[in-house]
Description:
globular, 8 helices, alpha+beta, 8 strands
Amino acid sequence: MEPVSGRKLGRYTLTRRLGAGGMAEVWEATDELLKRRVAVKIVRAALAESREFASRFLREARLAAQLQHAHVVAVYDVGLEAGSLYVVMPILPGGSLADRLARPVDDRTTLGWLRALASALDYAHGRGVVHRDVKPLNVLFDEAGEPHLSDFGLARGLDETTQLTQTGVILGTPLYMSPEQAIGTAAGPAADQYSLGILAYRLLAGRLPYEKAPTPVLLRRTVFEEMPPPSRFRDDL
């Protein structure tokens, strides 16, 4: 069943769609038990129908729910109901880093964000959880302007061992993807560190090392080419 306003998933009533990606839709909802607004990420039906995907996704969501860090978006709940696979999280009103990249960010602010995100990754890696998709859309800001990493470990549902990936689905976002992900091997903590490095490059240099190229070209450059130094695009860096 497709998500629609007014539909209920467990104790959550969907109110309006906040966004959508290739893997899921995000809805604002009301937690009818606790009477609070939450964000519900609903996996697309084609993925949720895979029993192996659902099992892995739920397992990773439970691991993510155990993470308690100031810069990690909390997981409130996870469920599978009437064929719908979903995760419940707080609503962060500050938007995503992708929204903020429309304007230059000063270095002091950038370094503060990077310290916070690196701290979140170190904490998760120390507990055996790898993010696998660090990118601007997965960095959300609270009302105080503090950054938080969302979707920790949830991309594991598209792990290289699943049938979905074997039919051509690539895990991650090509512009921020590590070389090991680009060639389809297992992603560990180093993959997250690489993606955070690309995020730092984008914030400090004002652009990505590789832009405006088809995905196969981006992946080939990631694996085989030496990255241009960010100082090429910003002399004072």
